[in-house]
UniProtKB/TrEMBL annotation, chain A:
Residue spans crossing the bilayer: 21-39, 59-77, 113-136, 143-171, 183-201, 235-252
InterPro entries listed in its UniProt record: ABC-2_transporter-like
Protein name: ABC transporter permease
Protein's organism: Candidatus Gottesmanbacteria bacterium RIFCSPLOWO2_01_FULL_49_10
Keywords: Membrane, Transmembrane, Transmembrane helix
UniProtKB/TrEMBL annotation, chain B:
Name of the protein in question: ABC transporter permease
Domain of life, source organism: Bacteria
Membrane-spanning segments: 47-68, 75-93, 123-147, 159-186, 214-233, 245-263
Pfam families: ABC2_membrane_6
Keyword Transmembrane helix: yes
């Protein structure tokens, strides 16, 4: 109940800054739209090379990537690293009888909800007004499994970003760490291109890392490109990554808190 | 006599700004090397980002030899030229723009405005990020490699034109950014528009022909961004005409005047945190 109230308080704050939320939403649209333009040209000129990836398929892929990115990719790491650890605001969380992990989740969730609502509006606009066919699964079992994929993707995104933020306990410059993470996410997260269009080496590396399980696999799952077996495999990989990342989070938190000084690093 | 006094005034003002900028260079360098670990982390991430643009094109063109009339190597050259360009931009300008948006949001622009130098200079040229220089070096090395692969030579004329084209591109992008950020004075909550500008600047990474797919209205908006990178790359490809140069200079001049005007008009509406 108390965490629910914390969520509502932060939702009020996030709704008050809905203009900022809209700008962040536009951010998630920009790169996929540019890549979509590139791919449409490439497929128009060399369609025979890309097989099932027609102009329509790539359009729906990137629109779904843009929509899914807006509410699946969490951005709590800067808050954790800069405000809490560097500026010392963490002390107020340590003094309260709440789990830091859950409170930060309640701080981030309202922003994701608002951007998720914007994403739904964009989805409906492109689907019903523009008329772009955005295929989504419709069988009950698939819907259930795909919902699980989305929930776990969000959970992985949150835990991963919390782990990233906690590295600020040991670094004086967090921007470098953030830049490396953004690079890896763009390359291996299915943002530049669907993983099946990558050279095989890149595709295999991407399958092993957690980035593809945050945006790429949820998108291809909702498009119905994965069989039931593949959906179960993705779910298994997501559960494994969630356990690993949460273990790393606990390790970093227990060690980092011993280093923390209340006036900041 | 009056023209002589005017010349002395102008040269004295120039000397003052050069002295200020030289001091800023030293202060920023000292701040950078103060923490060695963060210095090396930033260096590594900067080099990684330099490679990112090239890796993106390699992945995008891994199965096709050309797109939009640009061959794979030409696209790679465009990507490496973008690395050089964005290296300069991040070194000299982008950090200042991010700081400016924050100062406007928190109502702290007064500290910039009260300084006895031009407000636009103090707001947009104060921070120098030397680490971004690695992107310039990596970009130049990659450009040289791709030119060798295409068997294209570069003479003194091409070097001069290349530097001029990069400078024009910097001026165009600076003007666009300054115009947008100046407008946040009217709505400071939208200070995160800087993050959006970082992404929108990537428009210049791709060939202009790519944007002809969109509606004329959208293409017209995107045209200034295509002048950022294409001229410099076309110089290296020996495909740059006088007409293209005039277009780029014209766009730069118009946008610069517009940016300065918007900055001055917006400042009249600025209210600080205490007012």
């Amino acid at each position: 109940m108390r965490y629910g109230k914390i969520f509502l308080l932060h939702f009020q704050d996030a709704f008050h800054s809905r203009g900022r939320s809209f700008v962040y939403f536009l951010l998630s649209l920009t790169s996929p739209m540019l890549l979509l333009l590139f791919w449409q040209g490439a497929i128009r000129e060399h369609g025979e090379v890309y097989g099932v990836w027609t102009s329509s398929a790539i359009t729906s892929y990137y629109l779904l990537i843009a929509i899914a990115s807006s509410f699946l990719i969490v951005h709590i790491e800067e808050d954790v690293a800069f405000r809490d650890i560097k500026d010392g605001a963490l002390v107020k969380y340590l003094l309260r009888p709440f789990s830091y992990f859950i409170v930060k989740f309640m701080e981030e969730l309202p922003w994701r909800v608002i951007q998720g609502l914007l994403a739904i509006v964009v989805f409906l606009f492109f689907r019903f007004i523009v008329g772009i066919p955005l295929p989504i699964v419709h069988r009950p079992l698939e819907i259930l499994l795909v919902s699980g994929v989305f929930v776990l993707a969000f959970a992985i995104s949150y835990v991963f970003k919390m782990v990233l933020g906690l590295t600020a306990f040991w670094t004086t410059d967090f921007w470098g760490t953030l830049s490396i993470e953004e690079f890896l996410f763009s390359v291996f997260g299915g943002i530049i291109a669907p993983l099946v269009l990558y050279p095989s080496v890149f595709a295999r590396i991407a399958q092993v890392l957690p980035f593809a399980y945050i945006v790429y696999f949820p998108v291809v799952a909702v498009e119905g490109m994965l069989s039931i077996y593949e959906l179960l495999r993705v779910l298994g990989a997501q559960v494994a990554w969630l356990i690993i990342l949460y273990g790393v989070y606990l390790l970093l938190w227990n060690r980092g808190i011993k280093k923390f000084s209340s006036v900041g690093q | 006599m009056e023209s002589g006094n005017k010349k002395i005034f102008i040269s004295g003002t120039m000397k003052k700004y050069l002295f200020v900028y030289k001091t800023l260079l030293l202060l920023n360098w000292e701040a950078l090397v103060e923490y060695r670990t963060s210095f090396f982390t930033k260096l590594f991430s900067s080099m990684l980002y330099s490679a990112y643009h090239v890796i993106t094109i390699l992945l995008l063109t891994s199965t096709v030899p050309s797109v939009f009339g640009w061959s794979r190597y030409e696209l790679l050259l465009l990507a490496s030229t973008y690395s050089v360009f964005i290296g300069f931009y991040h070194m000299i300008i982008s950090q200042n723009m991010a700081r400016l948006a924050e100062e406007i949001y928190f109502g702290r622009l007064d500290f910039l405005l009260l300084k006895p130098i031009d407000s636009q200079f103090s707001a947009t040229f104060w921070i120098i990020d030397f680490i971004s220089g690695t992107r310039i070096v990596v970009g130049l090395l990659l450009s040289w490699y791709f030119l060798q692969a295409m068997h294209l030579g570069v003479g003194f004329t091409e070097v001069v034109l290349y530097i001029s084209a990069i400078a024009l591109g910097l001026c165009i992008l600076y003007s666009i950014w300054l115009s947008v950020i100046s407008l946040t004075i009217f709505n400071p909550r939208l200070s995160n528009v800087v993050d959006l500008l970082f992404h929108i600047s990537e428009i210049g990474r791709y060939p202009r022909e790519m944007y002809k797919q969109v509606s004329v209205f959208i293409f017209a908006i995107l045209i200034p961004f295509t002048f950022i990178m294409i001229p410099a790359t076309r110089v290296l490809l020996h495909d740059f005409s006088a007409r293209q140069a005039l277009e780029a200079v014209g766009v730069c001049a118009v946008l610069s005047i517009l940016a300065r005007s918007i900055w001055k008009i917006s400042l009249r509406s600025y209210t600080s945190a205490s007012s």
